[in-house]
């Protein structure tokens, strides 16, 4: 696997097959066949903003690399605003997503004998609000991610689809933590950040803390750090350090046993991070089969270590049906290191996620990008 060569091939294909992206490149004066010669040139690759995939923007079909008939399925984000992102994927794209999610999971997966999650079963998550869109199946992107995770056969799923709604059954969770209290079992917990946090805050008022021990782990994923995910809204931003401290204290799981996975609907891989007491945040490892550029909010130039900005993700794989090779996210990140993780020794780029752009920063971004959903480097 050679990322640069594969990315160049992917971008050249996107340039040829997606008229909208080719026009963007022409406006930017960039041609991947002539201007992408070394890894240093990656910073000049034009990007498409995630907002361009929003339903209201109406460009998701224009951002395809295939005809609508060539789409295997549409994947949709779990929007809290009622304006989800819609991305058309090929069967090959789904297989690449599966490959890289599994690689990321294997790299960070801790052994477990028991498991309880604040997610529904994958098929129920994919079935939730599933429908037909332009004559193809349209289903949850997160559901497709969950479908790849390798849960234990006896895993307890706390969210259940009933009468078209997701219902949280909290009693099995209470029984689970009581059953493993003080036994130091290899017990795993995970799922939706807002649901876990809200549940712990409620239970700490009703019962004593438990001690699951230093072999227990807690893994979150799917976002929701702004306190909202899909139709879940706990009414407040969730600070990562507070989430870890509150949940760690109540469940008796060491803070170093907390991990979180980051992805978004317009992307083709996941990034997992482990919690750092020193940084009071998760340190996310950028995998070797991808690249991330953090761009200054005002200048859009790549930042140095310790600086923050917009996150741009470069995908060499898994975007054969849509223009997803170079995506700018409305998330703010900070470069911890370009070379290694300061805590676990991982060799590669490490970032922190600081939240979404908002307020005056969002307006500034819109002005810089011309308000048309595509960017000038």
Automatic annotation (TrEMBL):
Residue ranges annotated for the Acyl-protein synthetase LuxE domain, each copy included: 195-369
Chain coiled-coil ranges? none
> Which N-terminal residues, if any, form the signal peptide?
none
Top-rank lineage group of the source organism = Bacteria
What one GO molecular function would you report for this record? long-chain fatty acid--protein ligase activity
One GO BP annotation of this record: bioluminescence
- This chain belongs to which protein, by name? Acyl-protein synthetase, LuxE
Source species, please? Caloramator proteoclasticus DSM 10124
């Amino acid at each position: 696997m050679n990322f640069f060569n594969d990315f160049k091939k992917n971008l050249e294909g996107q340039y040829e097959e997606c008229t909208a992206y080719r026009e963007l490149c022409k406006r930017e004066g960039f041609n991947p066949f002539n201007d992408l010669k070394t890894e240093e040139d990656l910073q000049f690759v034009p990007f498409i903003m995630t907002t361009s995939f929003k339903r209201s923007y109406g460009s998701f079909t224009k951002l395809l690399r295939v005809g609508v008939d060539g789409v295997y399925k549409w994947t949709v984000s779990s929007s809290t605003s009622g304006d989800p992102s819609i991305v058309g994927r090929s069967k090959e794209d789904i297989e690449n997503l599966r490959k890289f999610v599994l690689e990321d999971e294997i790299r960070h997966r801790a052994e477990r004998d028991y498991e309880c999650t604040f997610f529904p079963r994958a098929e129920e998550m994919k079935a939730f609000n599933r429908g037909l869109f332009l004559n193809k199946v349209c289903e949850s992107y997160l559901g497709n991610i969950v479908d790849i995770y390798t849960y234990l056969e006896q895993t307890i799923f706390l969210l259940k689809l009933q009468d078209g709604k997701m219902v949280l059954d909290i009693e099995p969770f209470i029984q689970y933590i009581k059953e493993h209290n003080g036994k130091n079992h290899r017990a795993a917990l995970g799922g939706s950040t807002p649901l876990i946090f809200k549940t712990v805050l409620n239970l700490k008022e009703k019962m004593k803390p438990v001690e699951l021990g230093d072999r227990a782990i807690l893994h979150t994923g799917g976002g929701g750090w702004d306190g909202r995910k899909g139709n879940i809204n706990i009414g407040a931003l969730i600070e990562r350090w507070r989430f870890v401290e509150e949940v760690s204290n109540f469940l008796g799981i060491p803070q170093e046993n907390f991990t979180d996975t980051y992805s978004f609907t317009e992307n083709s891989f996941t990034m997992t991070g482990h919690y750092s007491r020193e940084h009071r945040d998760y340190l996310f490892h950028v995998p070797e089969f991808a690249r991330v550029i953090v761009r200054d909010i005002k200048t859009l130039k790549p930042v140095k270590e310790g600086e923050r900005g917009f996150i741009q993700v470069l995908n060499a794989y898994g975007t054969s049906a849509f223009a997803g090779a170079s995506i700018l996210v409305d998330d703010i990140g900070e470069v911890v290191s370009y070379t290694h993780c300061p805590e676990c020794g991982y060799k590669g780029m490490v970032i922190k996620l600081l939240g979404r752009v908002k307020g005056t920063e969002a307006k500034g971004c819109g002005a810089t990008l011309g308000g048309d959903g595509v960017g000038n480097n």
